[in-house]
Amino acid sequence: MTEMSAALADLPAEPVVLAARGIRKSFSGIEVLHGVDFTLRRGEVHGLVGQNGAGKSTLVKIINGAYSQDAGQVEVNGTPLVEGAAGETRRRALAMVYQEFSLIPSMPVGQNILLTCEPIGRSGLIDDGEVRRQAQAALTRIGADIDPDDLVEELPVGSRQLVEIAKAISRDASILILDEPTASLAPAEIRVLTEAIARLTEEGVSIIFISHHLDEVVSICDRVTVLRDGEVTLVTDTRDVTLAGLIEAMLGRSLEGALAYRAHEVDRTGEPLLRVTGLRNGRLRDVSFELRRGEILGIAGLLGSGRSEVMRAIFGIDPLEGGAIEVNGARVAIGGPGDALRAGIALVPEDRVRAGLVREHSVADNIMMASWRRVARGGFVDDGAARRVAAGFVEQLKIRTAGLGQEVKGLSGGNQQKVVVAKNLSATPAVLLLDDPTVGVDVGSRRELLEDVRALAVRGNGVVLVSSEFEELSGLADRVLIMRGGAIHAILDRRAGDDLSNEALSRAVQE
Amino acid sequence: MHELHEMSGGTTAVPHMRRRLHLVSFRLLRGAIVYLGFVAIFVLFSVALRDNGFLTIENQLNILRQTAFVSVMAFGTTFALSAGEIDLSIGQVVALSAMVTAVLLRDTNALIAVPGGMGVGIVIGFANGLLTTRLRVPSFLITLGMAGIIGGLSRWITQLSPVPVLDATYTFAFGSGSVGPFPTLFLWTIAVLLVAHVIYRRTTFGRQLLATGGNRTAAHYSGINTDRIRIASLVICSSTASLAGLLYVGRLHSARYTLGDTDLLTVIAAAVIGGTSMAGGRGSIIGALVGSLVMGVLNNGLILMGLAVTEQMIARGVIIIVAVALSLREAPER
Question: Do A442 and B5 touch (CB under 8 A)?
């Protein structure tokens, strides 16, 4: 890619195929994009980076028509995109490539690629040979070695992504938007994807490449646009930028409203509250660490680094192939969440809707889900006691709800997450594991949640906090484990004088 | 930035409130519809079938007697559905339990026959549960297969011939007698209703059952042994089918392999009309009783109207579709 852009530098710039100008967008009165400009040239790979909440996905959704902007204009090949059927036709040039979401797993690759635009033979029926031929052509165009007759569900994730891309280009898309395309790919798969991207750009296809992996952005992309808090902070050729430069543009210098770290007492005497040694399974390689009473241990790493997998292994969701877990110096056998909870370990899972809540059940029923036995005698639930416990948590965590009987699906994301936290606290754990607890949580609730986490540690519990928001770790954690490839890559300790700032953590996970 | 977001909390509160009111009213309506429906049907029949003896005490007691079998099974089915499972073999469990009970009554006595007959349902429910959880096959397939096996067994046990029951104490207690004005079938219904309702509404098991049916992954993450809960729900369901079999034997003074073979749809319809979700996580034992009474009153009315058996079948099918459609309509997705 870099050779190509070097060659291009001597030529006049390629024409602009997509231009977004002065895009503004507000949600419930809050402006999240403050007049963003973005241009994409023919045949370029253009990186789009920024922290979570910087506005990347909002911008992309406006470009592909999922949202409409409040102000500004999107042009494709010089023509403004408009609402309605005419806009739809023009939008066909654009294709958003998700990891696998638009594929039907039980169908063969070829049928997926040509879904809804199947070639019809003279008999009026679908011409299967032609389906296979066209699918094969699309796959060959991106250099993908995939049989159109294979079932999608039998393909590895990387190949599914290539099928998605083939599907998009077979519909004559000339602009592809790849959203975190490498997040769950193995290195070999990333190479194949990179080659596919190179072939497409040579044909004149333009690509918007959204990624948190800045090293990939630098090596794959020709140009990069950095967003921070809804504004463009940097547009540059990737030749002219370093990792550090990108990080600085992403984070800025001042972080208003960031959580300030406050020292609190950590009990360093005697046995640690939690000690894991040599944890090993398909996703983890020899993970060992200790957690002290009163300590907040952060875990930072990119998606797929093993950060969630550690939590799942300790909580008994994923089986271990080796290693030991000790609570207060005593070894505990954890075969499932029930064992973990009995040992005093609770988990606020990454996906609260799927694994945390019964959305159709009331706030009280959800809070009590893990601890009915605590409010029961002889198997009979004392509803009064249950209501008191639930009401206590609603007050303590400031859960904004119409009442204990309200269904949780009517609550905001932040309040739903507080219910999940309350559910786990009601089991009175000594160790609370939190897996990226503030995803989809508004800033106000987020602060409250994090303060609650801190209070929990101050009361002498142990907390393990996985977060993709590094400022949360800089504001809360006493130590931070940096994970990479299923193993602990580094440990940063505030007491040892290590830098736990947002910037330092961002650098550490990228190294 | 921070203050701005604080404000957003205030502005979004209004649509939230409106949406909530809408949902609450929808839920109330959905909960009440079965009771309103029951009253409406009852009033309609009281007027329309005034001259056919619908309102006589004898006919009302008759409805209660005929409804008992379906009610008892609808209670059990409420447990299975609430856990996210379903038991399609209950009709065949009725027959096999009845046959085993009748044969044991003939060859031994009631003290052996009653536990023997009930044991059929417990064992089959346990087998259904183990196969469902261990093989990770949906319970509707396992129990459908089980229905075939049990259907064969109950035909094989006496080579298709019915077994008469002469034990007067047994037939009195299980379905033919009356205590004061109350038929024993009615008393059985009330007894099972109370026990089921208390287990369903007031025990930790009941709460864990609903959590498992509502979101099995979240229940698992909450430390609930979801396999155990699912097995238990199928044991309970199958056991109520056994009890229904015992009651049929007492009522009819004999057992046949055909007993219960048309009850499955009525039972599931009764549970669903009563407010139990086919998707799990929500249900009502009292609702199942009212659902059963709705089915019973409709059935009775169709007979009093003088419809032929064939016409009754057609009418019943139409009524089940209409009733289930009315009670199953979900709140519109947002």
Answer: yes
| Residues A463 and A432 sit within 8 Å (Cβ to Cβ) | yes
CA dist., res. B165 & res. A260, Å (int): 82
**Architecture field, domain A259-344+429-511:** 3-Layer(aba) Sandwich (3.40)
Encode pLDDT of A78-93 as tens digits.
888 776 655 566 667 8
> What's the pTM?
0.78
The domain spans of chain B are 31-328
pLDDT tens-digit series, residues A308-355? 999 999 999 999 999 999 999 999 999 999 999 999 999 999 888 889
B232/A contact by beta carbon, under 8 A: no
Q: Which CATH architecture has domain A1-93+174-181+189-253?
A: 3-Layer(aba) Sandwich (3.40)
pLDDT greater than 90 at residue A276: yes
Q: Is B218 on the interface with A (CB under 8 A)?
A: yes
Give how far A30 is from chain B: nearest CA, Å. Answer: 7
Cβ within 8 Å, pair B220-A28: no
SS3 percent helix, strand, coil of chain B, rounded to 5, is: 80, 5, 20
d(CA A52, CA A178): 16
Which residues 311-330 on chain A approach chain B with CB closer than 8 angstroms?
Answer: 315, 317
pLDDT of residue B330: 57
Burial-class residue B126 by CB neighbours within 10 Å (0-12, 13-18, 19+).
Answer: middle
Contacts with A79 (C-beta within 8 Å, 6 or more apart), sequence order: A90
Collect the ranges in chain B with pLDDT lower than 70: 1-31, 327-334
Q: Give yes or no for A341 touching B (CB within 8 A).
A: yes
pLDDT at B2: 39
Domain at B31-328, CATH from 3.30.450, 1.25.40, 1.10.3470, 2.30.30 = 1.10.3470
Segment A417-450, tens digit of pLDDT? 999 999 999 999 999 999 999 877 776 788 889 9
CB B271 within 8 A of CB B72: no
**pLDDT higher than threshold 60 for residue A24:** yes
Cβ distance of A338 and B224 shorter than 8 Å: yes
Chain B residues whose CB is inside 8 A of the A368 CB are 207
**Chain A window 276-305: which residues touch B at a Cβ cutoff of 8 Å?**
none
Q: Report d(CA A369, CA A19) in Å as an integer.
A: 50
Note the ipTM here.
Answer: 0.83
Q: How does pLDDT run across A151-209, given as a tens digit for each residue?
A: 988 888 788 888 988 988 888 888 999 988 877 777 778 888 899 999 999 999 999 99
Rg (CA), chain B: 22
For residue A231, CA distances in Å to A217, A241, A250 come to: 19, 19, 10
